[in-house]
Design brief:
Helix content is 49%, strand content 18%. By secondary structure, the protein is α/β, with parallel strands linked by helices. Strand 1, helix 1 and strand 2 form a beta-alpha-beta unit. The structure holds NADP nicotinamide-adenine-dinucleotide phosphate.
Length: 252
């Protein structure tokens, strides 16, 4: 049985991924999120499918607590074959809104710092040829309006995982970067703007799991959104600024 740690497992992509894995094989899961009741629900579901599941209610933005939780899980699992660092948050906030910097800090602590906290301890807690998959986003491509914290946090995650991929390869660990487009979860339910190629979490989980098994360095999807974001990346600043000026403060 593969020993698999997933953060942000209580809902959305993390929940769907754990369920997808358990559909295809029995695994020994170690699941982290803050909501214990949701984790218990997932544990029951996975165990009814024949897997083993251990849950760890924990806030990944609290360094000591998160690192100790990872160490505790590793001691039970005797090291992980696969780790998916998926926990993340987004908040739409304009720079001129109240409490902008509080929101910015919150997002960075969960989306960026938690990855560093995890990587620091995981390097010595992985099984031979282990995999660490880090969830970034196609939103890393540019600074979109009202999402300066989220987009820049995901740019940081993409670059962080790129460097980690090269560094940790030297000790036999494969680091993969996952870059989803829009997926239908609690995170996107609050968005008031058009979300092209919005995908169900089950389908996203399928693509992510296939990419992990194949040790694909960058798991970016869906394809039309990958193309669109590549195009957006190439836009000259004057055109990106011009197009952005059509976006209204409360959505389009
Ligand atoms: N949905 C999309 O369109 C999309 C697109 C690109 C990338 N992503 C990325 O995919 C990942 C998962 O997103 P999602 O759409 O599945 O979001 P979601 O449905 O809101 O789920 C987020 C998960 O992260 C956990 N989490 C949040 N803050 C946490 C904290 N401080 N400590 C521990 N766990 C925490 C949540 O659990 P608790 O609340 O129980 O703690 C939940 O399980 C994120 O990194 C997100 O940025 C999502």
């Amino acid at each position: 049985m593969k020993k698999i740690l997933i953060t942000g497992a209580s809902r959305g992509i993390g929940f769907a991924l754990a369920t997808k894995i358990a559909d295809s094989e029995n695994a020994n899961f170690h699941l982290i999120a803050r909501n214990e009741a949701r984790l218990l629900e997932l544990k029951a579901k996975l165990e009814s499918q024949g897997s083993i599941a251990n849950i760890y209610p924990c806030d990944v933005s609290e360094k000591n607590s998160f690192q100790n939780t990872i160490k505790l899980a590793a001691s039970k699992a005797r090291n992980f074959d696969i780790v998916v660092l998926n926990a993340g948050i987004s908040e739409n906030k304009w720079i001129m809104e109240n409490n902008y910097s509080e929101s910015f800090e919150r997002i960075y602590r969960v989306n960026v710092f938690s990855i560093a906290y995890a990587l620091e301890v995981l390097a010595s807690l992985m099984a031979e040829k282990g995999i660490i998959a880090i969830v970034s986003s196609l939103a890393d491509v540019r600074g979109f309006l009202s999402s300066s914290a989220y987009c820049s946090s995901k740019s940081a995650v993409t670059r962080l995982s790129e460097a980690a991929r090269i560094e940790l390869k030297r000790i036999g660990i494969d680091v993969l970067t996952i870059k989803p487009g829009f997926v239908r979860t609690d995170m996107t339910a609050k968005n008031r703007f058009p979300m092209p190629f919005l995908m169900d979490p089950g389908k996203a989980a399928d693509i992510i799991w296939r990419g992990i098994i194949n040790r694909k360095k960058i798991i970016a999807f869906p394809f039309p959104m990958v193309l669109l974001t590549k195009f957006i990346a190439l836009l000259p600043n004057w055109l990106f600024d011009f197009l952005s000026s059509f976006y209204k403060q409360n959505g389009v």
